[in-house]
Task: structure prediction
Amino acid sequence: MKTKKIFTAICIILILQFALVSTVSAHIDTNDKWSSNRVYFKPVYAGSDANNRIREAASDWNSKVPGFTFSESSSSFHQLGPDPGGMVPYGVAAATYYWVNPNTGYIEECDVYYSTSLSWHYGTSSPPSDKFDFLTVTKHEFGHWYSLDDCYESSHSSSLMYYHIDVGQRKSISSHDYNPARIMYP
Result:
């Protein structure tokens, strides 16, 4: 009888431990990481409002994950800009692509492409109900630069890394979003 109670207690502890660990790392897609804790990006939009929202999104992530820094550089190969054609699937607001060096295991290249067929809100105010918030989508895409995957748990639908962002919706980076990035870049 005593052995059965000990076994049950161990099982409960293991289940709780797994639940806590999986909650913290729910978004980590892979072990892909950058070789440095500073990554340079280049906004390539013609309009300054879009580029300013890209800078704002990078700054917001920088404040949430002190062990990793996004920095702007006009010479960076890591670009954020409009879809040059065929990179963003139909019905998707933006897509992040990154490439890993198979010899080192480090991310070498990363780009974000935004749909040119959607209506965007580039301002600082709340977005109107018929436009996608460029700032929110950019924060979400920068989350993928940490190898964070989309979250499909409906209990986290308010999280930035939730797979779906509605038109007219502005989201902030929550602890559910940035904690996995802090684990990867302490």
Summary: The helical segments are 2-24, 48-64, 134-145, 175-184. The radius of gyration is 19 Å. The chain has four helices and eight strands. Residues 25 and 55 are 26 Å apart (CA to CA).
